Amino acid sequence: MPRSSMADLTRRRLLLLGSLTGIGMLAGCAPDQQDKKPVLYLYPSVTTNLSVSLDYQGRLTYTYPKPQTQADGRVSWQVTASPDGDLTDASGRHYPSLFWEGEGPASSTQDEGFVVHADAATGFLEEKLSVLGLSQREASEFITFWGPRIAERGSALVTFATDEYARRAVYRFTDTSSGAEVLPETFIRVYVLIGEVPRTPVPEQDLVPAPARTGFTAVEWGGTEL
């Protein structure tokens, strides 16, 4: 084989190897997705001593209040939950919700959603969060956190992606007085993705209204910026 052909073949092999290596590096070094400010509200039918466990597919970066146990993406809180949503720890300190943040492999995409402009962000969130089942107090806390993050972009693509998120953040509730597992009769979870407005329009998302709240109700919201 002529020397020039050998050189070309070697170069192609090196380029292919470099491409494959690059793919591996990109896959291995993909930035983590930050799950920002998931907060969990609890509304039992009667005051109940609860152990709340979270199994998260990622690395927990912050929790509040201080949990009883925490290791390798797993965390457990013990609180007394009242029907009005008040949570009390063993020291008697009161909390409106349980809070955590974490980082995990980037997996969220936006193939549907809503293009929201800064001046319409508040009204948009009030309308959609009502459909998704948040109370006015819960929605207010959501909006004061996520509203500015939409507004500072000028415009954003907003997608609600709860199902995908729920697979990597799983809760269990146990009545510590009896040791029995407790399943919320109503569990409302709202997870928002905020990204850049795409050059090619995407379909508008069709939101499913939340069920009416009955019995022991758990409510959670959180999100991420892409």
Characterization of the model:
It is a single chain. Helix content is 26%, strand content 39%. It has 226 residues and is an alpha+beta fold. The strands form 2 sheets. Strands 3-8-1-14-13-10-9 form a 7-stranded mixed β-sheet. Strands 2, 4, 5, 6, 7, 11 and 12 form a 7-stranded antiparallel β-sheet that branches. Residues 1-30 have low confidence and may be disordered.
> How would you describe the shape?
globular
Q: Could you list the spans in which at least 5 consecutive residues all have pLDDT below 50?
A: 1-30
Task: Encode the helix/strand succession as letters.
Answer: HEEEEEEEEEHHEHEEEE
Strand order of the largest sheet: 3-8-1-14-13-10-9
Label the structural class.
alpha+beta
Rg over CA atoms, rounded to whole Å, is: 22 Å
Count of helical regions: 4
Kindly report the average pLDDT value. 87
Beta-strand percentage range? 35-45%
Total DSSP E strands: 14
Largest sheet: 7 strands, mixed
State the share of residues found in helices, binned by percent: 25-40%
Q: State the separation between the terminal residues, measured CA to CA.
A: 51 Å
